[in-house]
């Protein structure tokens, strides 16, 4: 009977066949240990000379890394391994012999591994990271579907910019100039006026010349937008969503978290409510922590975010940033026009901003004023104004960066390992 490594717990004591690859191997005179992987997981297979016969045993000893094969044998429990099961191999049939697989068990440099990303994805660590990513995606759909949101897909090719013009990827759209989407938000606002509560999940492009461990040129963003919800309501949604992500990964990826040697005690603390501090309080905190040169009105950099996060063991919201360092669409605080009703959610342990969100300007006059201040003219922005002309309502939304969230939850240092094929400043291959 054919099965997969993920299903072997249902087949203890039975003989099964699994399509696999050789991840690693070691052997002695009488016994060979094959580290098998089949895409669903990793498991040890044992070949005993006395049982399989001399000829087959020599064949097993000669198996090369990443050779593909069908293995047949009995599934038994194995308390010594993390996985808990192994196979006593009775027979195997090679499908394709791999010669000189480039990624050997020795240490390779990051650039070499990135050049071989198409193969590196097969490794145990990369496999665990992608499984965590997959669980976060699953939990995202679950959370928004269970809470009455409609999934709406905004366009990727756009005629206007959402987050400012410096980070846009330009492209030609027949006779017109177009851009790759840097955020679906403006379209999600239109969708919220049609469907109430919506979310998007798609690729996003930023032509930033940044080379930090938090920056990708192409990344995936989840962007919920809610009609009739104010800034506070939105923070509640965000903390519940992020808590749901953490608890889902803890529940469904325990093996992967162990493989990644993730300190799960940190993740167990992640439950709503999250602490909230204002930008003003954050500036004071930074001054106390010795950042003497930070001035009110400046944006925070990675070291600032890390320093603030150190004071909390959960993600922390920094709210009410100065209007001048945030996007044109954010609603000013009615009690104080120099700050806006917005929040960045900063992850613990130095992973930085994982969510950015705000209440949006719903007043037509004020939005027209912002257009003037930001030089937003032309047809490309006209439709967005119309949302304020026809039945405008208070509304809020946010964007969660998938890769930064995966990096934090999985405890991976750099976002380049959290997306299957990263697009970086110096990398478009493979
Ligand atoms: O803060 P950002 O730029 O916000 C927006 O785009 C809003 N329009 C979202 C909204 O309100 N609908 O980006 C949101 C999140 C960040 O907090 C970060 O997690 C991620 O997207 N992000 C990046 N991730 C990887 N590489 C980059 N270059 C990123 N830029 C932003
Ligand atoms: Mg931001």
What's this entry about, in short?
With about 425 residues, the protein is of the alpha+beta class.
Question: What do you see in this structure?
Answer:
- The protein folds into 2 domains: 5-96, Nucleic acid-binding proteins (OB fold (Dihydrolipoamide Acetyltransferase, E2P), Beta Barrel), CATH 2.40.50; 117-417, BirA Bifunctional Protein, domain 2 (2-Layer Sandwich), CATH 3.30.930.
- It is 31% helix and 27% strand.
- With 430 residues, it is an alpha+beta fold.
- Helix 5 packs across helix 7 (231-252).
- It is built from 14 helices and 18 strands.
- The mean pLDDT is 97.
- It has helices spanning 49-52, 54-61, 110-115, 117-120, 124-146, 185-195, 231-252, 254-259, 264-268, 279-288, 302-309, 364-374, 382-389, 402-410, and strands at 15-27, 31-37, 42-48, 68-77, 85-96, 150-151, 157-158, 169-173, 176-180, 197-205, 218-227, 276-278, 316-319, 332-333, 336-340, 342-347, 352-359, 395-401.
- The strands form 4 sheets. The chain has an 8-stranded mixed sheet with strand order 6-10-11-18-17-16-13-12.
- It is elongated, with a radius of gyration of 26 Å.
- The chain binds 4-amino-1,4-dioxobutan-2-aminium adenosine-5'-monophosphate and magnesium ion.
- Magnesium ion is lined by residues 344, 353, 356.
Spell out the key features of this protein.
430 residues; alpha+beta; OB fold (Dihydrolipoamide Acetyltransferase, E2P); BirA Bifunctional Protein, domain 2; 2 domains; eight-stranded mixed β-sheet; five-stranded mixed barrel; binds 4-amino-1,4-dioxobutan-2-aminium adenosine-5'-monophosphate; binds magnesium ion
């Amino acid at each position: 009977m054919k099965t997969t490594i993920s299903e072997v717990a249902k087949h203890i004591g039975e003989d099964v066949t699994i399509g696999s690859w050789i991840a690693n191997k070691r052997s002695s005179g009488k016994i060979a240990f094959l580290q098998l992987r089949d895409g669903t997981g990793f498991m040890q297979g044992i070949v005993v000379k006395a049982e399989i016969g001399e000829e087959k045993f020599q064949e097993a000893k000669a198996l090369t890394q990443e050779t593909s094969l069908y293995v047949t044998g009995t599934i038994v429990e194995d308390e010594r391994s993390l996985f808990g099961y192994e196979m006593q191999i009775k027979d195997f049939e090679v499908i394709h012999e791999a010669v000189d697989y480039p990624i050997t068990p020795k240490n390779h440099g990051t650039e070499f591994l990135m050049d071989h990303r198409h193969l590196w994805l097969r490794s145990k660590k990369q496999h665990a990271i992608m499984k965590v990513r997959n669980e976060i995606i699953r939990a995202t759909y679950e959370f928004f579907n269970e809470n009455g949101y409609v999934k709406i897909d905004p366009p990727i090719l756009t005629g206007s910019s959402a987050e400012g013009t410096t980070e846009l990827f330009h492209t030609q759209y027949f006779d017109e100039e177009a851009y790759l989407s840097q955020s679906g938000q403006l379209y999600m606002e239109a969708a919220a006026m049609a469907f109430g509560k919506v979310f998007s999940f798609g690729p996003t492009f930023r032509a930033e010349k940044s080379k930090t461990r938090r920056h990708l040129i192409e990344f995936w963003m989840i962007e919920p937008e809610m009609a009739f919800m104010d800034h506070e309501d939105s923070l509640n949604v965000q903390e519940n969503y992020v808590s749901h992500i953490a608890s889902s990964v803890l529940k469904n990826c325990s093996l992967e978290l162990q493989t990644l040697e993730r300190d799960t005690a940190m993740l167990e603390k992640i439950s709503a409510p999250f602490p909230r501090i204002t930008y003003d309080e954050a500036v004071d905190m930074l001054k106390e922590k010795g950042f003497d040169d930070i001035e009110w009105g400046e944006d925070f950099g990675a070291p600032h975010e890390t320093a603030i996060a150190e004071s909390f063991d959960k993600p922390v919201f920094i709210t009410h940033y100065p209007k001048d360092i945030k996007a044109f669409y954010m609603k000013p605080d009615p009690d104080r026009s120099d700050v806006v009703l917005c929040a960045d959610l900063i992850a613990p342990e130095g992973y930085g901003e994982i969510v950015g969100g705000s209440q949006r300007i719903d007043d037509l006059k004020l939005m027209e004023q912002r257009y003037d201040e930001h030089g937003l003219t032309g047809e490309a922005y006209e439709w967005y104004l119309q949302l304020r002309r026809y039945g405008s309502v208070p509304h809020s939304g946010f964007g969660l960066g998938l890769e930064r969230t995966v990096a934090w939850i999985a405890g991976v240092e750099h976002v380049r390992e959290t997306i299957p094929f990263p697009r970086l400043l110096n990398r478009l291959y493979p």
